[in-house]
Amino acid sequence: MLNPELISLDNQVFRCYLGWSAILVLKIFATGIYTGLMRFITATFANPEDLMSPKLKVKFDDPNVERVRRAHRNDLENILPFFAIGLLYVLTNPAAFLAINLFRAVGIARIVHTLVYAVVVVPQPSRALAFFVALGATVYMALQVVLTAAF
Amino acid sequence: MLNPELISLDNQVFRCYLGWSAILVLKIFATGIYTGLMRFITATFANPEDLMSPKLKVKFDDPNVERVRRAHRNDLENILPFFAIGLLYVLTNPAAFLAINLFRAVGIARIVHTLVYAVVVVPQPSRALAFFVALGATVYMALQVVLTAAF
Amino acid sequence: MLNPELISLDNQVFRCYLGWSAILVLKIFATGIYTGLMRFITATFANPEDLMSPKLKVKFDDPNVERVRRAHRNDLENILPFFAIGLLYVLTNPAAFLAINLFRAVGIARIVHTLVYAVVVVPQPSRALAFFVALGATVYMALQVVLTAAF
User: Fold this and answer.
1) Would the CB atoms of A4 and C4 count as touching at under 8 Å?
2) pLDDT value, residue A3
3) With left for phi above 0 and alpha for psi between -120 and 50, is residue B93 left, alpha or beta?
4) Residue A49 C-alpha, separation from nearest chain C C-alpha, in angstroms
5) What percent of chain B is predicted at pLDDT more than 70?
6) Which residues of C touch B120 (CB under 8 A)?
7) CB B81 to CB C49 under 8 A?
8) Which of A55, A65, B145, C113 has the fewest CB atoms within 10 Å distance of its CB?
9) Does C115 touch chain A (CB under 8 A)?
10) Could you list the mean pLDDT of each consecutive 10-residue stretch along chain C, which spans 151 residues?
11) b/e per residue, C72-83, with b = 16+ CB within 10 A?
């Protein structure tokens, strides 16, 4: 059932995983760059060697910078485990329709999560919804992988 | 020696990696959900749009929330590298008995780490022991992968 | 074009990915150990159960500890996505010369990043340069993977 031929561009499930993983890597990096931009805009630098002017002091509590940092950390907590479990889920040879839509759900929900968290703050439950759509899809994949390993 | 057929359910080492990786993904997510619960219990919210009542203010220093966040971050620092190196270690075709017990050691030690850190605080050196068992096993895998790549 | 035989020690691109990934896993762990050492040197402990003496109190703002923690977090933000995208990039069957030098660039730049950030503080733009060399190489890989998935 599980075999290495699943890792092939001919397997549309793997191809979908490949595309969304790469997009989400770029999305994580974009959030990192956005943190840096926000540091310059607000002149909030965490290291003495980063200070652009002798008048500035290190600062850790700018709310705009901290907001982007929380969005970024939430990515690490949720997208990075997806990279691992998504690949293993492809190897369980899931039904293509379901798997492809799960990958789309994770990809779109995590992009929306960043937008409503760090770019334009949208009232709750928008961020919570985006968070739980991506989490639910990833948990489902992890449960399928546990079942495949166990039986 | 190293070949893609190792990525197969017939390879009990890969199967063990598959199962423990999925369990640890679920464990990381459980810690994330636990952070959220702790935020509600202690009414500690980091974003203005998360405040449930106009009387609340954003708060960043609740010791219970921060403790779970430290446990969660420690997971990111230690479990996420395991996902990458565990798969590569499987591809070096290690002895099954050793590899399976290393995966079990990482899986059990990281679950214990969260329990004694964030659920029921157990005096040291319990957390340090759990930390170093998982770290030692993962470092061993990484060294084996370096040796495989070099020779 | 993309096929599982690329995951083989006979493929020097995969072999290079294998080696640098394992070295970077060890580098991340070294930064974690260094954080612990710095905590002992400066007697900065975040948990009551970690305090070595009843005279100590929990402390969160030692600048040396926080500096290493920022370097460590920067690793999570940049090296962990590389583990995922590097493997997928190998599967796109890239030209060996380019791929091998991209892996070397990421590996060396991320080691330099930690050294100039957390070990011996070197004035900017040394850290920024190390950061952007690794980021640029990883973004290039991600774009190649997106193109492979799309066409």
Assistant:
1) yes
2) 63
3) left
4) 6
5) 97
6) none
7) no
8) A55
9) no
10) 71 94 97 95 92 87 94 97 96 94 98 96 92 98 94 76
11) bbbbbbbbbbbb
